[in-house]
Amino acid sequence: MRVFILCLSLLVVVAACGSRPEASGQAICVAGSTSVQPFAEKLAEVYMELHPEIRIDVQGGGSSAGIYAARQGAAHLGASSRELVPAEKELVEIPIAWDGIAVIVHRDNPLSGLSLTQIRELYQGRIRNWRELGWLDHAVHLITREEGSGTRNAFEELVMGKAEITPAALVQDSNGAVREIVASDRHALGYISVGLVDARVKALEVDGVLPTRENIRSQRYKLVRRFLLVSKLPPGGPCKEFVDFILSARGQSLLEAEGLVGYEE
Amino acid sequence: MTSKGIERLLLVLALSSVGSLALITFFIFWEGLPLILGTGPGDFLFSTHWAPTKGRFGIGAMIVSSVVVTLGALVLGVPLGLACAIVLAEFAPKRLKQVLKPTLELLAGIPSVVYGFLGVLWLVPLIREHLGGPGLSLLAAAVILGIMILPTIISISIDSLSAVPDLYRDGSLALGATRWQTVQRVVLPAARSGIITAIILGMGRAVGETMAVIMVAGNALKLPTSLLDPVRTLTSNIALELGYASGRHREALFATGVVLFVIIMILNLTAAAVTRRR
Questions:
Q1: Which of A80-84, A114-118, B159-163, B216-220 shows the lowest mean pLDDT across its residues?
Q2: pLDDT tens profile A161-173
């Protein structure tokens, strides 16, 4: 079944990329993680303006599908928001950015930080009232992402460990929707990509560390994951030039402007 | 082309739509049944523990949520819709009718995502501030769905009310009944099966609606204990998680689809049976 889905995603990718990658020198196909996709699209857009002769297709499909596509040679570059498992280690991995997960609350919330344990207990449903955290007596409106989402996977891995997220938590299907609810509900608590935190919500310190760029890059902030590009062989030709562009000061500053933290100093 | 040939061509085209229905049915069951049987139908239908990436597939809470949200929508939509249909079919002057009917039909043409958006912007904060809870709730979903099923209920009810022969009305009025008595005791009973069909089809629409519900219902997995609790319906479950699901998780979503399919089928067959009995 899994193979079937991967094949299906592969088909989509191949169809979307128009031609077999090795047959054409001027089209680059990037496929994979939906967390990476918006950033890859931005990079592709700017790169194609600089190099009109190159066409870059960016596809979603999920980290696993992207890695699989890169492995099969259906995509030049696979995008992944999770680390490679040992079986995938033969691929070339190119880290392009850090993505932090911010725990967010409403602007009016006086809380400045939580410990990792407190966050886990909140999401396990053990802490249910803001009073237990030293605020007013009101239920915490917990918001999580849907099962299977990359951000949720990362959150479960980094925060929850073996514990399950309580079924009482509200479920939203995008970072934007989570942010929207937290911005409008004083008693809400949610988590989103650091890049999408804006002035309408407040990111909390985790174990006393704010999710700032420096703290994410130094990994002092705990809720951090890497965005990777993977390919079957070390990239060459136009593909290498695109990767070089992403890792260049220009590419990295583009990613920073979109809210990620650049991998290269 | 001969007329015989055209007939054949049309027959093939007609069958192709039935064929696609058969294919869809086959596909849903093919993908979903193995998981239901593997988990055990009892466990799948009645357990409320849904953690598909950890191998727990229980959709009990979602079935309950779907049923309660739908009932809530009916409580709101049926009296409103029926009242509207009676006014339009029996009492409204022709001019008013000419304005109201197209307006109501327009209501059916508004995409569900727009209903959901309005719900999030207006209804949800209203509930949160005045009634409590996170706002995204069973109540919000029921209200939005109650509005969304209005066009279905109204248009079918109007048709069935209009189908009652004028002879009945004339007879009743001639016997000295008032217009309201006529509607209440003669026209409504005569149109009963059509109205029941309207309600059942409205119910089908409410059960099947997805987008608006995802946006306002909160989608929590817990069994609801109050109207203000967030809930996840069967349709929301599929739409929310299908994007990333693979393997058994994906099969479980198809299995959710099987349950939904059976519910909708039962509703439609009931509606057809009621209509036929007339």
A1: A80-84
A2: 889 999 999 999 8
Phi, psi of A113 (to 5 degrees): -165, 165
B240's CB contacts (< 8 A; 6+ apart) are A146, A171, A173, B214, B219, B232
How confident is residue B133, by pLDDT bands cut at 50, 70 and 90?
confident
Strand, helix or coil for residue B54: helix
pLDDT tens digits, A251-265: 999 888 877 888 876
| pLDDT tens-digit readout, B42-60 | 999 999 999 887 888 999 9
Q: How many CB atoms lie within 10 A of CB A57?
A: 17
Whether the model pTM is above 0.90: no
Answer whether A147 sits within 8 Å of B48, measured CB to CB. Answer: no
The total of other beta-carbon atoms located within 10 Å of residue A240's CB is: 13
Are B141 and B236 within 8 A, CB to CB? no
Residue in A2, A149, A184 nearest the CB of B244: A149
Q: Are strands A27-32 and A55-61 parallel, antiparallel or unpaired?
A: parallel
Cross-chain residue pair A172–B247, CB shorter than 8 Å: no
The answer to whether residue B204 neighbours chain A at the CB level (below 8 Å) is: no
pLDDT for the residue numbered A19: 44
Residue-averaged pLDDT of chain B: 92
Contacts of A147 in chain B (CB under 8 A): 51-53, 241, 244-245, 249
Output the CA angle B41-B46-B52, nearest 5 degrees. Answer: 80
Distance CA B186, CA A82 (A): 68
Optimal mutation site among A80, A105, A170, interface B, most CBs of chain B within 10 A: A170
pLDDT tens for B87-106 read 999 998 989 888 888 888 88
Task: Tell me the ipTM for this assembly.
Answer: 0.81
Hey, what CATH topology would domain B60-277 get? MetI-like fold (1.10.3720)
d(CA A247, CA A249): 7
Rounded CA gap, B112 and A251, in Å? 39
Per DSSP, the three-state class of A224 is strand
Task: Determine the Cα–Cα distance for residues B56 and B39; give it in Å rounded to an integer.
Answer: 9
Cβ of A164 and B54 within 8 Å? yes
Cα angle A121, A123, A125; round to 5: 70
Give the pair of three-digit tokens for residue B266. 């039962």
pLDDT of amino acid B33:
94
Helices B94-109 and B150-162, interaxial angle, to 10°? 140
